[in-house]
Amino acid sequence: MVAQRLDGKACAAEVEEELLIRITACKEKGIKPHLAVIIVGDDPASHVYVGSKVRACERLGIQSTHIELSADSTEEQVRDAIFSLNEQTGLHGILVQSPLPNHMDEEALTDLIDPVKDVDGFHPQNLGRLVQGRLDGMLPCTPSGVMRMLSWAGIETEGKTAVILGRSRIVGMPQSLLLGAKGIDSTVTVAHSRTKNTADLCANADIVIAAVGRPEMVTADWIKEGAVVVDVGINRVDDSTRERGWRLAGDVHPDVASKASWLSPVPGGVGPMTIAMLMENTVRAAEQSYTV
Ligand code: GUN
Fold it and tell me: Which residue puts its alpha carbon closest to atom 11 of ligand 1?
């Protein structure tokens, strides 16, 4: 079997087309969706991600505010920035780019974002709604992007066995809640660094979602013939054959394409979907600002 490409770029382009209509409707009501991104420090990958978010805003006509703080900023400075953005009317979404420098308590800071502006869906109120099975609120962008991509490709989830590799706050844990939610109805196993039989669990799974940050860890022998494999990993690996000396690699080895029925590529799979879902959450927040 040769896997079909789960093309996040194409799916994201469709999401953006739908969003343009909703953004026009907002503007007709005098509201321009507005997203603020706070980035602290100089992690190169984070700056690339934030750049992509700002460019997506430009493409769609969403206003963006980009707040950059140096790595030696205090937690109080980030707190003050969040409080000030919470108060700003006409600003609909706030995102604090992860990771923050080690001296900051990322979760405590996330807790300070006004839940109606929490376009990352990481506030306990929004995550709590997800735990309750209420899927109509702010959902974390990468897991909801994965779900949108599966549905766009017509991939069945009901009654399927799914293995999520990784239990992070940003991807693995919310992904497991989404896949197991009523109406989506997969039977979910979350594997993590202490799991003993990860390869065996994967070998029995209809759907494997890899979000661990270990380059090409998932190999073809882990995968059942015809399984759906979603690669959420994005890792920089040394590659002397490239002029720049490195290349991007996912958590899934490319040979998995010989076993899977669907495989999302890195790059061009989940990455564009994360951004599309962030844009959708921002538009939803703007819409709610005139419907409440
Ligand atoms: N860092 C990596 N992914 C994300 C994300 O989805 N949101 C935020 N805020 N930071 C991230």
Answer: 98
How far away, in angstroms, is 203 Cα from ligand 1 center?
A: 29
User: To which residue do tokens 């594997």 refer?
Assistant: 191
Domain boundary among the residues 93, 122, 151 is at 122
Kindly tell me the burial class for residue 192, based on how many C-beta atoms sit within 10 Å of its own C-beta (0-12, 13-18, 19 or more).
Answer: middle
pTM: 0.97
User: Torsion angle, CA of 197/232/3/201, rounded to 10 degrees?
Assistant: 10
Looking up tokens 């839940």 gives: 115
Residue 134 lies inside a defined structural domain of this protein: no
Q: Are residues 52 and 102 in the same domain?
A: yes
Residues 158 and 57 in one domain: no
Burial class from Cβ neighbours inside 10 Å (0-12, 13-18, 19+) for residue 240 reads exposed
pLDDT string in tens for the chain (292-residue length): 899 999 999 999 999 999 999 999 999 999 999 999 999 999 989 999 999 999 999 999 999 999 999 999 999 999 999 999 999 999 999 999 999 999 999 999 999 999 999 999 999 999 999 999 999 999 999 999 999 999 999 999 999 999 999 999 999 999 999 999 999 999 999 999 999 999 999 999 999 999 999 999 999 999 999 999 999 999 999 999 999 999 999 999 999 999 999 999 998 899 999 999 999 999 999 999 987 5
98 lines ligand 1 (CB under 6 A): yes
Number of domains making up the chain: 2
